Every structure is written in C-alpha cells, then in structure tokens.
Amino acid sequence: MTKKFFAMMLTVLLLLSTASAQAALAIQDNRATADYWAGRNKSGEAVFVSTQELDMLNLQIRQKSANTLVDLPKYPEKVYTQWMKNKITATMAIGHFDQAQVPKLFKKGAALTEFSYTQAKKNSRVDDVPTVCEIRYALTTDRTNIRLLPEADGWFESANDTHFDQLQATALDPSEPVVVLINSADNEFVFIESRAYAGWVKPATLAFTDRATWLKYADPQNYLTVIASRKTIPSGKAFYQMGGRVLLRAADLQKDGSWAIYVPNVDANGTIVEQGFNIPNDHAVVKSALACSENNLIRQAFRFIGEGYGWGGLERNVDCSAFVQDVYRSVGIELPRDTIRQEKAMARSISLKGMNRDQRLSILKKSKPGSLLFAPAHVMLYLGTDNNGEPLVIHALSSYFTFNNGQTAKHYVRKVIVSDLHFMDANKVEMIDRLTSVGNF
After folding, report:
1. CB atoms < 10 A from the CB of 304, how many?
2. Residue 264 CB burial class (10 angstroms; 0-12, 13-18, ≥19)
3. How big is the CA angle at 229 (ends 228 and 235), to the nearest 5 degrees?
4. FRET pair for 92, CA 20 to 30 Å: which of 181, 199, 317, 391?
C-alpha cells in the first residue's frame, strides 16, 4: 500500500467519521430552522436594546471586558516600554507561550524544537521593546489572521493535524481599523491592536493611512453591516463574515437602488487607495445594524447552519466564540472575542455552578431565546425548548465523545449545528452538567 493511497483512505475515513458524527448529534428536522423557533417566540420581535441605548451598552461591555475591547478612536498616540511589553506578553500568554518550557506541539509534522520556540519568542521583541512606540494607523484590506507570535507556520497538537493551529488568535474582516505598534525583529510581522484583539499580522494585509482617513472607519457615521454569514465585496474580492462593516460613501441608497461604498486597498507603492464601488441592497447587508430582538438573533444564528468550524477563524469559518460574536455584532452588540471574556461581559448572568440537573433545567427553561450558554472553552446560543420540553442550542462545535463497552471515541463535527445538551466531553460529562452560566442583555 503506497503512502499516497494510505493518506487518501485516511481522508475518506475521516470524512465518513465526521459525517457520521454530525448525523448522530445534529438535529436535522424542522427544529433546525429559524422559522420553527421564531414561530414559537411571538414576543421575540420586540426590541430589547434600542438604537439609542446601544452606545451605553457597548461601553458597559468594554468596561467589563478587562481592556480586551478597545475604544480605538481614544487610543493614545504613543505608548511606552512596559506597557508594550505587557501587551506582547499578555498575547503570548493566551497560548501559554510566555512559559519557558517548550510546548508539546508540532510544526510541519515534527515536534516543535527549542530553537524554533526560542526564535519565535525572540522575534516578538518582548525583551527588546523601544522606549517609545509611535502609533501608526492602518486598515485591513482582506481577511487578516492575527497570530499569538510572529510566526507564519502553524503549531499543532499532533503531527497530522492541520485544523487547530495553536498560534492562530482570530481573523479580522476587511476594512477593520487597527493601530500598529511595533515591527517584529525580522520585519515580517507587525504587532497591532484591533477593537477586540491584539497580536501579530503580516503588514501586506494592511493599508497604512493617516489618522483622519482611519477615523472614518474607526468611528463611522454611515456604514453597512454584513448580515449574511459571508460575503465578498465587491463580488469575488475582499471576504467578509457576518458583523463586518463597510463604509458608505453616501448615507442613502443611490437612484438605482444600490449602496455606494468604500473598500480600502493599496496601490503598487503601498499607498492607501479608497476604492469606490456600488453593491446591491440585498439580504446580505443592512444599514447600521439589525434591530436588537431575540428573533433577529435566532435568524442570524441560522444563517450559519451547516457551515464549517474554523479554529480562530481559520479556513474562512467560525469557532464557537466567533460565531456568537458575529451574530451579536449584526444587531450592534460588540462582544469580546474569546469565550471566557464573553461570559464576564454579560449584562445579566445566572451562575449554574453547584446546581444539580433539575435546577439547571429549571433555569434554562426560563431563559430568553438568544441567551448565551457558557461552559469551559465553549459557548452556545440558546434557542428554547422543543415540544418535548428539551432545551436546544445552536453552536459551532468542534467535537464530542462517546463511550461504548469501555472504548472512548472522539467524533469531529466541525460544523454549526443544532443539538441538545446531552453530548459528552472526554470525562464522560454531559454538556448540560458542564454549563457554568447563562447570560444575556
């Protein structure tokens, strides 16, 4: 058997296993539709946060998010050594790369070496930060990966893995304003801060500009929000996901019914060019944001149904926390990027710690559709109870475990699905018993 044939058969078996896992767990009847849940929630069309209240709510979320959500227009024009060093170290710590010990990870199919680990950390300049860092302003020109270290190659937990790159922090949509702080030692990366994440990006993905131009995007007065799960603007060009914002050139629709927009790009000399386009007024975009209602949250969540799971936004997909972040941003609510910060940012939260199964079920059945259910390293959007009184959720799920005759099996789902809360983790604990809190606004 050739290596090529073996690899092909392994891929086929993985695909069959993934399909089987999805079929076993994912609900695929009418409960996997937005109409089912919106129809059961007649009061769910009511607005729970008005347009006038959104600014105050988002300010409160930023205040509860331990500086992981940034008010970019108020960013200082320069920062200093210790502040910058703390910022780089905090980013490294997300992946535990602030530790001296080499992590048990794999790079290009081989165990990560001490040399590679040391060089990547050295490239971050954590011990070589300038006395003063002058802020530069930039806009993303396409989907942009933020890395926890200035390293392009992926670091994985197994030699064969290609999906779960431990250096991947998140992905930014095009037109996102960022502040650029320092270059990596090799000048292949720059350390940036966006509205919801700091880390390392390739400078080729950025259009550097002056503060006045940048402010049009950092504090937009007229903009569109992408409400489709994904959209390229203009067709075939820059890739946006739900919640991405597009700057308008004119506040109102054009005579032909289109929207006039700006998309940042760069010319051959690396100078910013604000390209003007007209795009249809279709069901993929909305001016400003959708109304904040429970049913809008549900409808938005279902626009992702069946789409792939992407760790840290890889493969142009969403993981669990990016999924709920995008859904909530489409109604104007700015959540932090990571699950642990999202849980702390909720305006109203009910802790489930220490509760038994019956107590948890009682809380869930009283919870609002569109609420977020939190567990260690996972978040789900609550839909309500079905005709049998079973609480169901929609979420971007990576995997779950089954146990049979003393055998443990891990099943990769890697999709956005609807499910109940009875799937298990590696410790044979059902999700409903792992929940830590229910949160909403």
Report:
1. 25
2. buried
3. 65
4. 317
Its pTM stands at 0.94
The whole-angstrom separation of Cα 409 and Cα 18 is: 12
Please give the structure tokens belonging to residue 151: 């390293």
Q: What is the pLDDT of residue 190?
A: 98
pLDDT score, position 23: 53
The pLDDT of residue 402 is 97
HEC profile for 228-270?
Answer: CCEEEECCCCEEEECCCEEEECCCCCCCCCEEEEEEEEECCCC
Q: How far apart are CA 168 and CA 171, in angstroms?
A: 8
CA angle 65, 71, 74 (to 5 degrees): 140
More confident residue, 237 or 116: 116
Question: 8 — alpha (psi -120 to 50), left (phi > 0) or beta?
Answer: alpha
pLDDT of residue 67: 75
User: pLDDT-based confidence at 21, cuts 50/70/90?
Assistant: low
| Mean pLDDT computed over 295-311 | 98
| pLDDT at residue number 24 | 73
- 183-216 pLDDT, tens digit per residue, is 999 999 999 999 999 999 999 999 999 999 999 9
What residues contact 55, with CB distance under 8 A and at least 6 apart? none
Mean of pLDDT values over 327-335 = 98
Q: Would you state the torsion angle of the CA atoms of residues 296, 298, 299, 305, taken in this order, to the nearest 10 degrees? A: 150
The domain locations on the chain are 17-56+291-440
**Model confidence at 175: pLDDT above 90:** yes
User: Does the structural domain 17-56+291-440 have CATH classification 3.40.50.150?
Assistant: no
The alpha carbon of 380 is separated from its chain's Cα centroid by a whole number of angstroms, namely 13
Of 65-69, 128-132, 330-334, the least confident: 65-69
215-to-179, 181, 191, 209, 290 alpha-carbon distances in Å: 11, 17, 19, 10, 23
* Position 388, amino acid: N
